[in-house]
Specification:
Largest sheet of chain A: none
Number of strands of chain A: 0
Largest interface: A-B, 31 and 49 residues
Oligomer: heterodimer
CATH architecture of chain A: Orthogonal Bundle
Structural class of chain B: alpha/beta
Number of domains of chain B: 3
Strand content of chain A: under 5%
Radius of gyration of chain A: 21 Å
Number of helices of chain B: 17
Structural class of chain A: mainly alpha
CATH topology of the largest domain in chain B: Rossmann fold
CATH class of the largest domain in chain B: Alpha Beta
CATH superfamily of the largest domain in chain B: P-loop containing nucleotide triphosphate hydrolases
Distance between the termini of chain A: 20 Å
Strand content of chain B: 25-35%
Shape of chain B: globular
């Protein structure tokens, strides 16, 4: 058994190095696109052109790319916040989905209240999602269960429940989709860059990034959360109520995911369509991992992820490859990034023992 | 004919660019075959860096390394192992749930039919090495159940099994008890007789005298010189290490007539699940203002438990803790902090600091609330406060650096600064100078003495008898979680080490505990 080189002393410029790591993985992913196109396409040059330039070629594609980045930003923030506190939220799927459904239903119910109703609906939806994640935190605090496992399991169950609610009691019979009724027109966010789906939800996502950044780095609570995440024994020794920072970050994490779901409804979908958010939770996780839990880095990471997806869509429409190419490239990124993150996570757990 | 050289390092230079530190500055180091060579120096002198270069854990900017006469480029520990160089780190790298042989053979397991792990053969192979070198463990023991000293043996066996003949040990005695140190030393002497060349990184003078053939002394990244150990005495080595001679001492306080009880422990009992013997057994004590109350004991006899109780980390089963008469039993760390707990923990890396957080973030823990302006933490104020503390406690650091990049002595200074700043009327020190060099230790003692003079009730928990005898005004000796002796004032000061040692080892105990 050989000793691994110690990180501390070897790192010349730690931040630069760690960003370089993420950057390298992105390059590998892009190389993967090239290789896959060469392998799978009869016209690789055309495929590559559409893949890389397609998302940027007109406002429709560009706007839709930004649109799909929005829930990723919210999800990425949510996961980052949890990870900063030393917790892991794997329940994004169920949290986005339930957040969206509850927001939709409340919005329909609060239609007469106008702006206030819209805000209220959004808050309730996000709080329900936050509550689901917070439950995992509560379990960990109470019985020391792994929040990683419980958040995942709860989310899986919630997805099924939401599916049932959409297909059953809350289905809108007037459409052929399996979806709820639409939210009132007055609740819809105004469009940017028509004819794309982009809405002012993008600005709310950016506001969320700033808010999370300020919370983490400028407030007492954010400071205590980070210290708990860096070294919970130190935090406890310093007089910080570390139990609080098991439940609170999980709640906030789910809350952000839920906001992502809510804004997707207000800005893009207007009703909760069955499985509309499938994959957004996981992609939010990947975004947080690429961003190394830095709120400011969540924006470029989410844009990159959205770009890959938009590129694949464009290549699929104009060339002979299938949409799976995006899934494969995203899996490559996910694989490389998560393996590195898990490594550090395990190192940390071992040090704590 | 010069003696055969196992290692010849010439003009080794190592620069850490983060803080532009010349950790090694044109260092020469020669290791003879079959000798025990101590590498001495204060914290931060560059000893460990030099050995990491030799072991391939650090690259170097300049200089050459020859192993048995041949120039080598040691780029990684793998290369070092191939050249027969092994290193035993201060912190062990063992899989606790594996047996001794599984740990030793990791990566080179014997196999049956090329596939299946051959447990019997593994145990036989490892037992051979154990028998050959007279170790006290067996191949099929679970590492989890071994003592610290035995775990260190596993690390050494790991190296021996790989035919290492140049063995580096980084502060090997830091975690061992007296008896374990003795047995380690006899092992090392045997290894040297068998032709192995050994390097011990240490700053303990008695050990250098006790075991080494030669000693090399480093200071501030430079190699001063190498001496035959018998030709220098402890004083000379110490003077070389320090650059100036300082004897550790503090002025003892005049008996303060206004002394009042600040912290009282009454019949504190702490039980451990599944164990008959309590960790602390009806321990009573009183810490008075303007006085240093020292708790002495061999590790494993309740010092660590007492620390955890005072820090609020573990609940007590029976008894009471009072602060100025107010009951603070089992209220938890957060409330104890609000009550006025100031506390320098023994584990300054895992408990006392968050290594990846900046110095200033470490400074404001638990008090971040007092730096708020309009609801946000006022970063400028925090930085100002931190810089002020760093200057007053002469810690070499900046407010923004991650605290993990500082030397051990400087980390301790930051912790001291934080805790002394927040102290109200009592303060707990646990192993405050563990692993620190002489100058840093003296600094700590001066701080403790000045707190005492300001009227603080100081509780000092220390397994270092020298430390207790140097600075404590009153001494309580713990043995198996029970108070077996206590000494006051001059009585404490005139005690001999041997005498108090007998209490610590349970050979003697006072009939009726007084004080």
């Amino acid at each position: 058994m050989l000793d691994r080189k110690p990180h501390q002393s070897r790192r010349i410029l730690p931040t630069l190095r760690s960003s370089a790591g993420s950057f390298l993985i992105l390059l590998i992913a892009l190389a993967g696109v090239v290789v896959l196109s060469l392998l799978l396409s009869k016209t690789p040059a055309k495929t590559l052109r559409y893949f890389f330039l397609g998302p940027l070629q007109n406002t429709y594609y560009f706007g839709n790319m930004l649109t799909s980045a929005i829930p990723l930003i919210f999800g990425g923030l949510g996961v980052s916040l949890a990870m900063r506190s030393g917790n892991f939220n794997l329940g994004g799927e169920g949290q986005i989905y339930s957040g969206a459904l509850v927001t939709t239903l409340c919005a329909i119910y609060f239609a007469p209240l106008g702006l206030l109703g819209a805000l209220l609906a959004l808050c309730i939806g996000a709080s329900v999602a936050g509550g689901l994640a917070g439950l995992s935190g509560f379990f960990r605090m109470k019985w020391n269960t792994s929040e990683l496992i419980t958040s995942f399991l709860i989310s899986n169950a919630v997805v099924l429940v939401v599916n049932y609610l959409i297909a059953g009691p809350f289905m809108d019979p007037s459409t052929s989709l399996i979806a709820t009724r639409k939210i009132p027109d007055s609740f819809r966010l105004s469009a940017l860059l028509p004819p794309s789906n982009l809405s002012t939800a993008l600005f709310f996502a950016l506001v969320a990034v700033v808010a999370v950044h300020i919370y983490l780095y400028k407030t007492k609570s954010g400071y205590e959360l980070r210290m708990t995440g860096l070294n919970s024994r130190f935090a406890k020794y310093g007089g910080i109520n570390t139990k609080k920072f098991i439940v609170l970050p999980m709640f906030l994490s789910g809350f952000l995911y839920g906001l992502g779901g809510g804004f997707a409804i207000y800005g893009t979908y207007f009703s909760t369509i069955k499985e509309f958010s499938s994959g957004m939770g996981w992609n939010g996780l990947a975004v947080a991992l690429i961003a190394k839990s830095r709120p400011s880095a969540v924006i470029p990471a989410a844009l990159f992820f959205a770009y890959i997806e938009a590129g694949a869509r464009s290549a699929m429409l104009h060339s002979d490859v299938t949409f799976e190419i995006a899934a494969i490239v995203q899996s490559i990124i996910f694989f490389f990034i998560s393996s590195e993150v898990l490594l550090t996570l395990f190192e940390k757990k071992r040090r704590e023992l | 004919m010069p003696l055969e050289l196992a290692v010849e390092m010439r003009n080794i230079t190592k620069i850490y660019p983060e803080n532009n530190l010349r950790a090694n500055d044109e260092v020469d180091f020669l290791l003879r075959k079959g000798e025990i060579h101590c590498l001495a120096g204060e914290n931060g002198a560059g000893k460990t860096t030099l050995m990491k270069v030799l072991y391939g854990l650090e690259d170097h900017e300049g200089g050459t390394i020859r192993i048995r006469g041949n120039q080598q480029d040691i780029s990684s520990p793998l290369v070092a192992n191939r050249l027969g160089i092994g290193m035993v780190h201060q912190h062990f790298m063992l899989v606790e749930d594996f047996t001794v042989s599984q740990n030793v053979l990791m990566g080179i397991e014997p196999r049956k039919h090329g596939l299946i792990y051959d447990r019997k053969k593994a145990d036989t192979l490892v037992n051979e090495v154990i028998g050959h070198h007279h170790f006290s463990i067996e191949a099929n023991m679970l590492v989890r159940n071994l003592t610290v000293g035995q775990k260190q043996q596993v690390e050494i066996i790991k190296m021996l099994y790989r035919d290492v003949d140049i063995l580096i040990l980084d502060e090997p005695t830091a975690v061992l008890t007296e008896q374990e140190i003795e047995s380690l030393f006899s092992t090392l002497k045997q290894l040297a007789q068998k032709g192995k060349s050994l390097i011990l990184i240490t700053h303990k003078l008695q050990e250098i005298k006790a075991i080494s053939d030669r000693v090399s002394v480093m200071r501030q990244g430079k190699m001063l010189d190498t001496y035959e150990t018998e030709e220098v005495d402890e004083r000379q080595i110490s003077a070389l290490m320090m650059g100036k001679s300082i004897s550790l001492s503090i002025e003892h306080g005049k008996k303060n007539t206004e002394s009042r009880p600040v912290i009282e422990g009454r019949q504190i009992t702490v039980l451990r699940q599944g164990q008959q013997r309590p960790l602390l057994n009806a321990l009573s004590f009183t810490a008075y203002s303007g006085e240093i109350l020292g708790f002495a004991g061999v590790s494993g006899n309740g010092l660590g438990v007492l620390e955890a109780v005072l820090g609020g980390f573990i609940p007590i089963y029976d008894g009471k803790v009072l602060h100025n008469g107010e009951d603070i039993t089992n209220i938890g760390t957060a409330l104890l902090r609000k009550q006025g707990l100031a506390y320098v923990p023994s584990d300054r890396l895992k408990v006392g600091s968050a290594l990846k957080a900046s110095v200033q973030e470490n400074i404001i823990v638990g008090e971040s609330g007092s730096f708020r302006k309009n609801g946000f933490i006022d970063q400028k104020k925090v930085t100002r406060h931190t810089n002020d503390l760093l200057e007053r406690y002469s810690a070499k650091a900046t407010a923004q650096m991650p605290i993990g990049t500082l030397s051990g002595g400087n980390i301790q200074k930051v912790i001291l600064a934080r805790e002394i700043e927040r102290y109200q009327d009592y303060i707990v020190f646990s192993e405050p100078t563990w692993g620190l060099d002489i100058a840093s230790s003296q600094f700590v003692y001066e701080q403790i003495a000045s707190l005492r003079d300001k009227g603080a009730a100081v509780i000092l928990i220390s397994s270092s008898l020298d430390e207790i005898l140097t600075i404590a005004d009153r001494i309580i000796v713990l043995y198996r979680g029970t108070r077996v002796a206590s000494f006051v004032g001059d009585e404490a000061r005139n005690l001999s080490k041997e005498e108090i040692g007998e209490y610590m080892l349970g050979i003697r105990r006072q009939g009726a505990a007084h004080a």
